[in-house]
Amino acid sequence: MPDLPSAFLPLLLLSKFVTPVTFRHHRYDDLVRTLYKVHNQCPDITRLYNIGRSVKGRYLYVLEFSDYPGTHEPLEPEVKYVGNMHGNEVLGRELLLQLSEFLCEEFRNRNQRILRLIQDTRIHILPSMNPDGYEVAAAQGPNTSGYLVGRNNANGVDLNRNFPDLNTYFYYNSKYGGPNHHLPLPDNWKSQVEPETRAVIQWIRSLNFVLSANMHGGAVVANYPYDKSLEHRFRSPHRTSNSPTPDDELFQTLAKVYSYAHGWMHQGWNCGDYFPDGITNGASWYSLSKGMQDFNYLHTNCFEITLELSCNKFPRQEELQREWLGNREALIQFLEQVHQGIKGMVLDENYNNLTGAVISVTGINHDVTSGEHGDYFRLLLPGTYSVTAKASGYEPKTVTVTVGPAGPTLVDFQLKRSTTQVHPVQKAPGRGQGSRAKQPRTSRKKDQAAKRHRGPA
Amino acid sequence: MKFSSVSEEKPGLLAPPAQPLTKMFQGAWLCWASLLLLVRVTQPCPVGCDCFDRKIFCSDEQLAAIPLDIPSHVTDIVFVETSFTTVGTRAFSGSPNLTKVVFLNTRVHHLEPDAFGGLPRLEDLEVTGSPFSNLSANIFSNLSSLGKLTLDFNRLAALPEDLFHHMDTLESLQLQGNQLQTLPGRLFQSLRYLRTLNLAQNLLTQLPKGMFQSLSSLQILKLSDNMFARLPEGVLSNLGSLQELFLDSNAITELSPHLFSHLLSLEKLWLQHNAISLLPVSAFSSLRNLTFLNLKDNALRTLPAGLFTHNPGLLHLSLSYNQLETVPEGSFANLRKLASLTLSHNAITHLPENVFRNLEQLVKLSLDSNNLTVLHPTLFHNLSKLQLLDLSRNQLTMLPGGIFDTNYDLFNLALLGNPWQCDCRLSYLTSWLRLYNDRIFNTHTFCAGPAYLKGQLVPNLKQEQLVCPGNPGQLGLDDREPAGSWDLAVEGRAAHRQCIYGNPEGTVLLACEEAQCRWLNIQLSSREGSDVTAMAYNSSQEWELRSTCGSVRVTVSIEAQAAGP
């Protein structure tokens, strides 16, 4: 194995002694029944809610696992899994239903690893983002050769090409200065996206997600941002190139966590294609615009990867058990990665929470912000970092932090109100990163005002 | 003249009747077509519901009654979190084609006696997560086609004995998560074709002896999460088709010797999270098809000899979280297909040499969290397919040489949480780790001694650090050949003899050959901050080091140099 962080310590395989689950495909009504069954079986640690509806009116159900479901506990990170974004790519949907049953069953069996995970993490599982597309694919039957039937939503739109395109804006800012995180949405974004996309965007803006994976099929590889090529606009569209994020090493590690914990993804040779370590930069594979994983990174605090899980997009029912056994450890280990890096509270002199404070790490051109409870989460690999917290009206504070292999490292910031009476100077964007103008968000209201002034990106 | 008159009249009469008839026919046809179109176009979806072809989902929290205008072609209807509280008599009789009716977490707390009358084709009925607590005896009496009935997570406290008496076609009955304390003895008498019965998560403490005697087709029986302290002898005696039996998470303290004696088809048996302290030797002797056996988290202190003799097909066996102090030598002798064996979290102090000898297919072996101090060199021999071995959290100080020599596939070895003594006796293990195991798996495996290596990471050790004072570092034998011999071989060997000189505390070590010394290791103060003082600048210290080769004196001085380039 290549060098990997020590987070792999709990690599001892999960016991096979788990209550067996039913390995079958689930149409929409069966999906709903299964989710309700898990919720009813584990009512104290689950919450079943919907984030919106598909074009045809099917609900996008989310099952939440937490020791206090429905509540964000400060310093407890939010993670999400999204399946079935392409309606005909169904393994993710089935795996997430199995994962839901597994978490519930293992919690009831007092599995210490799962108990700890549920106590320390707030897990949101959206088994199907495209329930209409799924029904189209399922109606074809799993053995038909229709490659794309059911991929799109009921309006014929590919949902992984339907998010606001923030990459161009980021590439411009990297060159000429401008925000490196929480890029704003265009004013008219709601009219540009499908109902499913709108529901997901509103969902990921409503919770301070830290880590995420969305599940696809047709290959076996863990794909990490950026999906959109940096060079796409300036070179031939047929040439692709690696397009790293400022957190490239971290994303590679997250992808490797999944691929190496997976039964066979790490072997690289799958589906007639080869990916070293079973991972790939999205843009170096093929470039795509308006994808969900780039949107998560550029608009929110969330680090999302894309998991291609099976060669056959709609595997036969008989293959589901093997797929579950191959993915189960990876699904758990990936969730555990949300506890790497640093986290803490951002407070003022009177110990009030500061929302929207900006957390910067020297050398990483991507900041994160504190949430509504004043807590922040910054995924980082083991090492020593210089970390700065800034908030409008407060003096910035910088500390040096060492992140160990067993995380997370707790780093609280207490900021003093600024006594400087300097008026903000309106500068034109200058050259180089040093003159980047950061826009800390101290409240959603202020952010709205800023967006109105700025206009469409 | 008359003939001519008659002929003229007849053609005139024929013309008028033909024309009106044609016109009427055309009008009727148009009218019929219009009616057909109207009927199709005006099939509305009931308010508060969503229609998908022949399926209806009603998820409106404000839906106060079952819609009366369900289209007649609908086959499936699902209510999710609706607010009506009663299903009235024959509530769905206007929808005779329904095959599936589902209520999920609604507020239904009353089902009228004939609520589901008029549904001759109903196959799947579910009322789950509702607050109703009782059922009338004839509530399901008209459902002659029902194959699946699910009444999970309601508040049922008792069931009338005749409840299922006319349900000849039922294959799946789910009663999980209710508040059932007792069941009438003849409740399941009519369910000859039942395959799955789920009574998990209730409050059952006992079962009438004949409870399951009619269920000769039953394949899966779930009794998990109840309050059984015992099961009556013979209660399972007619379940010849049973494949999976769930008795986990109860309060079972003992199993009668013949409880499972008729379960000839059983493949999986879940007994974890009980309080079983003793197993009769015949407990599993009839289960010749058993592949999974889970005895985790019970109170077992010993395993009777021959317990698993008759389970040759067993693939997965868990005995973790018990109180075993050892395992009798022949316990697993007949488990030649076993792939996974878990003995973690017991009180095992020793294991017989041949206890795992026949487990040729074993892939995973968990021995973590026990009290093992010494392992026999051949303990894991024959386990040529072993991939994962967990020895963490025991009392091991060393492992004997050759212990993993036949474990060709072993790539995942867990060693953390043991008091490893990192001296010459650990040479085999560290060499093996360097060659065969990825060090990433043992990043928390530390030396407990000797003092100068305490806290060091085992996989990072160098071979020359693993020394035992007073013993030759390379050869295990004293060379007793007389000096001056003319034999070249003897002379060559003598020339390479290595001596390790050390002080009693082990803080100073010196490795020498006949004519020269190669390395010196000095620990100036103990990591534990003992009373031994470290050396100050501009001081010197002297040690007399001993080995079987003799003794040497070592003097070390530290001089502070004047600051300069």
TrEMBL record, chain B:
SUPFAM superfamilies: L domain-like (SSF52058). It is found in: Secreted. PROSITE patterns: LRR. It comes from the Eukaryota. Residues 44-76 form the LRRNT domain. Pfam families: LRR_8 (PF13855), LRRNT (PF01462). Residues 418-469 form the LRRCT domain. InterPro entries: Cys-rich_flank_reg_C, Leu-rich_rpt, Leu-rich_rpt_typical-subtyp, LRR_dom_sf, LRR_TM_domain-containing, LRRNT. Residues 1-44 form the signal peptide. One of its GO terms (cellular component) is extracellular region. GO terms for molecular function: signaling receptor activity. Keywords: Glycoprotein, Leucine-rich repeat, Repeat, Secreted, Signal. The 83 kDa subunit binds and stabilizes the catalytic subunit at 37 degrees Celsius and keeps it in circulation. Under some circumstances it may be an allosteric modifier of the catalytic subunit. Tetramer of two catalytic chains and two glycosylated inactive chains. PANTHER family: ANTIGEN BSP, PUTATIVE-RELATED, LRRCT DOMAIN-CONTAINING PROTEIN. This is Carboxypeptidase N subunit 2. It comes from Rattus norvegicus (Rat). The lineage of its organism: Eukaryota, Metazoa, Chordata, Craniata, Vertebrata.
